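Milestone M4 deliverable, item 7.
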Amino acid sequence: MHELGAAQDVVRAALQAAEGQGARRVTAIALKVGQLYAVEQLLDLIAIAAQGTIAEGATLDVEAVPGSAIQLASIDIE
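Output delivered:
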């Protein structure tokens, strides 16, 4: 299940970016997701991986793109 590892990577990247900016909370995460991923499953796993972090409850926005990569497009923080 490569979605689990990808979800953990997304949360890790979002947290690193947010903490680097001194954020108290991540309110939104925007992703570009390749067509080889099961998007709904990926979103569920990101929500689980974010539990207990400053990204818990963040809105997830996905743009489907060709290929097999996942890219953290942006985050919104407080």
